[in-house]
Design brief:
With 429 residues, the chain is mainly β. The chain has helices at residues 2-25, 190-195, 240-244, 341-346, 423-426; strands spanning 66-68, 88-103, 106-113, 122-125, 129-136, 147-148, 168-174, 179-184, 199-205, 215-224, 234-235, 250-253, 266-269, 273-282, 287-292, 296-300, 307-311, 313-316, 320-327, 332-338, 350-356. A hairpin with a 6-residue loop joins strand 16 (296-300) and strand 17. Bound molecules: copper (II) ion.
């Protein structure tokens, strides 16, 4: 059996190598999907390169219905498009430079799309014509623009949208590709504009839409470089040296420490399906996005249309995205983290999803035992009183649902329930 597997593997390798070779013969600039007719194709059932999507049908802008975009304000996603025809979608976004809280007692001078970090979530349908209006509040001090990664065209719209304070600009683009795309300011110095919070997501739905879910949330990671350390109080200026060294004081979701914690946790119920539209504005750090205690049923990796199933942690590149879908079976508090874990517990990259509903003790039992463990041959400590297993204090939250305050050990660092031997085995000690 093992030999057979190896043999099949070798054959596949040969076919794959041959197929790649053919791909290299494709003239540059071609779609590369079809081998020349004269070249024999070794594996007709397995195309050498992925199929290209159908081209977006031509549109006549003059005949399109005109729709004002409904934007999503984080953590709420923009509503689904629910349309089976292309439209001209008007998007209006105002740039505002605002001083807001980055953490409790900590202020920062943000540059924003729409007054918040991230900027509003924009949602259109593949093939739509997007008419983009960028307004800059007269009180702003800097010129800004926008580079939308969903744009096919130079600069993603940056040059066409360069907008001085007290001005408004307009350009349009057709959304040719499905996916979840970051937008950001691209005015020099670009890193500073992004570091100050100028990013958000534009989602281009496939023509047929995505499967429906019960909740769609909008979460964008980004880091902030302040002169003071994490939680140093007062108005904190930007620290260029920390930014160049990629050593942020804060790594947060939705532009603020604890933006999804406590009363601001994302709500859901047992039995519901949740979809997260995830982005990473950076400016520097790739995110290893994980939800503690959940497995993603589906991940649209990098916001594209390739769907992976049964994923624990997904990478979100800077200037990139992902969609994750999962169903909730068990109530409790689920912790959203960047699994580069010091960021989660020491720099703010931590959020919560609070799930209410009935327990299912088959799927997850909760703690079944906590008894004294004394391996054979362990001498009793001199004069030590026998240690009784201490029941948790009444009213104390279980580790899984405890809000990880600074001094609280992280949920993952607590002795995992799985490590506790079943009660039957434990009795032999
Ligand atoms: Cu800017």
């Amino acid at each position: 059996m093992r030999h057979a597997t190896r043999f099949i593997g070798a054959v596949l390798l040969v076919i794959f190598t041959a197929a790649c070779g053919q791909g290299q013969q494709t003239p540059a600039g071609g779609a590369g999907n079809e081998a020349p007719a004269s070249v024999p194709v070794a594996a007709p059932a397995a195309p050498a390169t992925p199929e290209a999507k159908d081209l977006v049908p031509k549109i006549d802008p003059a005949t399109l219905p005109v729709i004002e975009a409904k934007l999503g304000i984080a953590p709420n996603a923009a509503p689904p498009v629910h349309r089976d025809y292309p439209a001209k979608v008007i998007v209006k976004v105002e740039i505002r430079e605002v001083v807001k809280e980055l953490a409790d007692g900590v202020k920062y001078s943000f540059w924003t799309f729409g007054g918040a970090v991230p900027g509003p979530m924009i949602r259109v349908r593949r093939g739509d014509l997007v008419e983009f209006h960028l307004m800059s509040h007269p009180g702003n001090t800097m010129a800004h623009n926008i580079d939308l990664h969903a744009v096919t065209g130079p600069g993603g719209g940056a040059a066409s949208s360069f907008t001085a304070p007290g001005h408004q600009t307009q350009f349009s683009f057709q959304a040719l590709n499905t996916g979840v795309y970051i937008y950001h300011c691209a005015t020099a110095p670009v890193p500073l504009h992004i570091a100050n919070g100028m990013y958000g997501l534009i989602v281009v739905e496939p023509e047929e839409g995505w499967p429906g879910v019960d909740h769609e949330y909008y979460v964008v990671q980004g880091e902030f470089y302040t002169k003071g350390d994490y939680h140093a109080q007062g108005l904190q200026p930007f620290d260029a040296q920390k930014a160049i060294a990629e050593n942020p004081s804060y790594v947060v979701f939705n532009g603020r420490d604890a933006s999804l914690v406590g009363d601001r946790a994302l709500p859901a119920k047992v039995g519901e399906k949740v979809r997260l539209f995830l982005g990473n504005g950076g400016p520097n750090l790739v995110s290893s996005f994980h939800v503690i205690g959940e497995i993603f049923d589906a991940v649209y990796a990098e916001g594209g249309d390739a769907v992976s199933h049964d994923v624990q942690t997904t990478l979100i590149p800077v200037g990139g995205s992902a969609i994750v879908d999962f169903t909730l079976q068990v109530p409790g508090t689920y912790i959203l983290v960047d699994h580069s874990i010091f960021r989660a517990f020491n720099k703010g990259a931590l959020g919560m999803l609070k799930v209410e509903g009935p327990e299912d003790t088959t799927i997850y039992s909760g703690r079944q035992a906590d008894e004294v463990y004394k391996p054979e041959g362990t001498p009793p400590a001199e004069g030590a009183a026998p240690v009784e297993a201490t029941p948790p204090a009444e009213g104390a939250a279980p580790a899984e649902s405890a809000p990880p305050a600074e001094a609280t050990p992280p949920a993952e660092a607590t002795p995992p329930v799985e490590a506790t031997p079943p009660a039957g085995e434990q009795k032999q000690y």
